[in-house]
Amino acid sequence: MIFSLALVVAIQRGPSSPRFDDISAKRMMTHVRVLASDRFEGRGPTSRGEQLTVAYLTSQFKKIGLEPGNPNGTYVQSVPLVGYRTRPKLAFNIKGKSLPVRFPEDFIHEFPQLTPHAGAIGAPVVFAGYGIVAPEFDWNDYKGADVTGKIVLVLGGEPSRPDPKHIKNLDARFFRGDFRTRYSMRDYKAECLRKMGAASVIFLASAESPKSFTIYKTFAVMEGLSLPDWNLNEHKLITTGVLHPRTAERIFRATGFELKDLKRQANSASFKPVALDATADLEVDTSLRPTSSQNVVGIVRGSDPDLRNEFVVVSAHWDHLGKDPNLKGDQIYNGAIDDGIGVSQLLEIARSFKNLKVKPKRSILFIATTSEEKGWLGSKYYVQFPLYPLNRHVANINLDGGNAWGRTRDLIVSGYGLSTLDRVLGQAARAQGRKFLQGSIDDDGLYFGSDQIEFARGGIPAAFPFSGSDYIGKPKGFGDRKWSEYADRDYHQVSDDVKPDWDFSGAAQDAGWLAIAAYKIADEVQRPRWLPGAELVVRRLIP
Ligand SMILES: [Zn+2]
Question: What pTM did the predictor assign?
Fold first, then answer.
């Protein structure tokens, strides 16, 4: 009886872990001040800022005493890239009239073909609703329509319907209700249309969040980066693009449709693609620059003779948006929260692990990824060309955007319910006397928004932890206010800089939380696994 009780307690707590109390807020602040300094030029991949950042991280990895993460004896993995600068030209022809749309005010490209010129003149225009084919929900927006050579307009997001029992909530059995599935992602929709031979896909930016178009614009006027195109003989889209909501409304109106009516139709399973009485001329000129960047990698070796060849991956992206010489005033995207803090947490977790007297059974692989901001390119490349066999990577904890305002009583993750990592994260939170919230912050598809999604698509159970919002010694609502101020004012802006009121005691405690979780995962013989339903999020785009 006593024995079984002890067993129950042991299962609830998992393997015991050190407390990682030596993780230091002060050291983290020092790292962030360096990484987010103007000298580092916003850490743009392939820039001088990259050289400084990679040199800094490599020297820190050495100083900590990490083993080189690359079997070739270095701390870097080279990532081949192609830089592109693109000028798209788009005009709709409606009832004998040409309706040009302006770049970048009304229309931006996202991922162009990696060729100097691509285009289609007089291409038919079709509205394809959400652009989703999801057999498990009996959903097909194309209904066999031929989209070959056409320019296809597609809504962002995915269909939803009210929960019949709680009419205010969305039905969780239908496209996961409030949570996003992989079907909502633009790369999934573009890949579908590429396979169907479409000329191009143009996404309609949401009128509810016009800010999102502003953020697309920031990227479109900069140099884009892509992994090289390895499938030279396949059909390509001319580009993927995004249309401003105001422009979309104007085009639909000119062809006799109201966007809001079409949106309503698109939410019904009986929706069929709508051919607009319009053609479009799309031309894309792109200058290309073959280049490369680097993931920075280091290892704390595990203690078990067999399991030390398996890895728990702790990741954070070192890159940010770089420098934009066209901006007036401040031109440097310092990226202090995004992801200076995450990288500083990674460095402190690594240092604390290295100093442990007794290491966990498995090894910890620390990866500071490149080009997350350009579409998770460093992690995407790592999963395609891993430094060790992919099936020896047992879990990923990805740090992106840390807490700058002090200690919290609670903790939350994005992507709750996807894998057994939740159990371990809960144990680690309780080991610190903190509350792990049973839920997820996913509304805007956050889980799809950083490197963890690439590790997840590679089959590796991946967690995207956040901090909490219940701040110790602060008034109610303080945390929510700070996070929404950050989102509105500083996220992906030149103002994401170190602020005078910052307090890293919380970020240090959160790093401790994740170190405890990483230790438990590394020390527990059983590997983490996906839970039923996770395939709606993490399965590769098209089988
Ligand atoms: Zn980030």
Answer: 0.94
